[in-house]
């Protein structure tokens, strides 16, 4: 890692330590309640294609959510990590179609659709370690989702962006750099947090 990151690295360590200390019961319970809350969001309820991810380790579980979206006939795209940390995408075709991959990840075994295919998503679930009041998200530091968010912006599409976290990971402020882009919603076991979308400069009244 290079350069000044505004304190992201130390904060990531603290947040991962906090996850390591979460009671097993809280971790187990989180997946079901997150799936219920996320599926109730209008942004997800109306989505034909959702870009998601397969949770690993102590991340809030996405397994129930993936299976419920899939069962409902939603097209679910999952990331495939490329050697430069960029993301390719492939469809989710049920838990048995996932294979073990680098860095403890589980990835879809099916055909890869190319990094640009993420621009077809109506909604996107993002992993993260924390979010702040502005919706600025702290990720693991690979810059994978920074690139995805830039790609969406360049394609001129605005899928609803939803980060899944534990309650204590919604913070007042996380360090943000020039390349960081906000998410719209954070879903935690305790509730749904919506962030204001900065409005464009207002045009003069007529
Ligand atoms: N579930 C999940 N999938 C994801 C991400 C993620 O954060 N979570 N990514 C987000 O960009 C991309 C992969 N990037 C990753 C970057 C770092 C590590 C990582 O630090 N892994 C640890 C071991 C895993 C653990 O148990 O925590 C390691 O390599 O030491 C994993 C994935 C795409 N898929
Ligand atoms: N659009 C981009 N293209 C290429 N590299 C980028 C882009 N945006 C950010 N990066 C690089 O990625 C690295 C990690 O950025 P950052 O610390 O913000 O990651 P993060 O947002 O926490 O992680 P992630 O995006 O994987 O969730 C930085 O070195 C940054 O310069």
TrEMBL record:
SUPFAM superfamilies: NagB/RpiA/CoA transferase-like. Keywords: ATP-binding, Ligase, Magnesium, Metal-binding, Nucleotide-binding. One of its GO terms (molecular function) is 5-formyltetrahydrofolate cyclo-ligase activity. It comes from the Bacteria. InterPro entries: FTHF_cligase, FTHF_cligase-like_sf, NagB/RpiA_transferase-like. Its cofactor is Mg(2+). Pfam families: 5-FTHF_cyc-lig. Belongs to the 5-formyltetrahydrofolate cyclo-ligase family. This is 5-formyltetrahydrofolate cyclo-ligase.
